[in-house]
Design a protein that fits this description.
Number of strands: 9
Low-confidence stretches: 228-253
Helix content: 40-55%
Radius of gyration: 19 Å
Length: about 325
């Protein structure tokens, strides 16, 4: 069996954790299944374009959120054991009884991190990877806001360790919130970049019964951070007419290279203004309500996922 996940040139811990997570929760996974079997795990991977590349995808917690949803033909070749949340399940036409969990939430069970002390740890800010890539003085402006900056482009284990030790987490990176929740660290969802994908966040939070709308910290300056043109929902990508779920938003495309170049030029021109506004916004965000999923529901979901992992092992051995 092979592993498919999103590989970014600069790295992104929420994707890169696939490289060690499956060795820990499904040891020997490489030898399972038949030729052509491919493991789809952590990430927003379930698009028609991705599934067309593989003959036998095994889906264990992946989600939708980018690109056209899979066709019926592509889905017929999938062995779907779990998805990230109810929005993905609905978009794929799966029953409400399908198992829902982002597998990254099993990280505390397999990473042997030191027990965090009760004092001495400041809150941290973990941006979306596209936000982190902007040439701003992130460490300085976060320090001025009373936060520690943690880049999502760092080593996945080190980033998760920082999250597990934090007082609380300001998360623009969805997996920063997921890992914080898994380690029972309070988190606040915030948005800076136009790359923020509310659909993915709603998919995950609704799977655990949490209703969260990310705070748009730079609403007045949204024009500056826009990395793709605003456009109506692509009804062909959305599938047939249906009643949308609470919190559902259109599937979106990632920002284009031209849009990123435009943003870079604008930031070079308005850097002092942008840094002052971000610092002030992060300082205000620290006072927003914090979130944690229900511990009982999380434990139930994790137990169900571990049981499904064992079924996968038996079925594919």
């Amino acid at each position: 069996m092979e592993l498919f996940y999103c590989r970014l040139p600069r790295g992104n811990f929420g994707d890169d954790l696939n490289l060690w997570l499956w060795d820990a929760i499904l040891p020997g996974w490489q030898g399972l299944g038949q030729a052509g079997e491919t493991l789809f795990g952590v990430g927003t991977l379930l698009s028609e374009g991705n599934l067309q590349k593989f003959s036998r995808p095994l889906v264990l917690g992946s989600g939708t959120g980018y690109g056209a949803p899979p066709s019926a033909d592509s889905l017929s070749r999938c062995d779907i054991r779990a998805v990230r949340g109810p929005l993905t399940a609905r978009r794929l036409g799966l029953p409400e009884t399908v198992l829902m969990l982002d597998p990254a939430m099993l990280s505390p069970d397999v990473l042997h991190l030191p027990v965090p002390s009760q004092t001495g740890h400041r809150p941290i800010f973990v941006p979306h990877h596209t936000t982190a890539a902007l040439s701003l003085r992130w460490h300085q402006l976060c320090d001025d806001a009373g936060l520690d900056f943690v880049s999502p482009e760092g080593d996945s284990r080190e980033v998760i360790a920082r999250i597990s030790q934090a007082d609380f987490v300001l998360a623009e990176s969805m997996h920063a919130a997921i890992l914080a929740d898994a380690f029972r660290v309070p988190w606040i969802a915030v948005r800076l970049s136009d790359s923020f994908n509310q659909f993915k966040w709603n998919d995950w939070t609704l799977s655990l019964g949490v209703d969260v709308a990310a705070a748009d910290l730079l609403r007045r300056y949204r024009w500056l951070f826009r990395q793709r043109p605003a456009q109506p929902e692509d009804r062909n990508a959305a599938g047939p007419e249906r009643t949308p779920l609470v919190g559902e938003t259109p599937v979106v495309a990632p920002p284009s290279g031209d849009a990123r170049k435009r943003l870079k030029r604008l930031l070079e021109r308005f850097r002092p203004l942008v840094e002052r506004q971000i610092c002030a916004a992060l300082r205000r965000a620290k006072t927003l309500p914090m979130h944690l999923s229900d511990a009982t529901m999380l434990a139930k979901r994790k137990a169900q996922f571990r049981a499904e992992i064992e079924r996968v092992r038996c079925d594919l051995s």
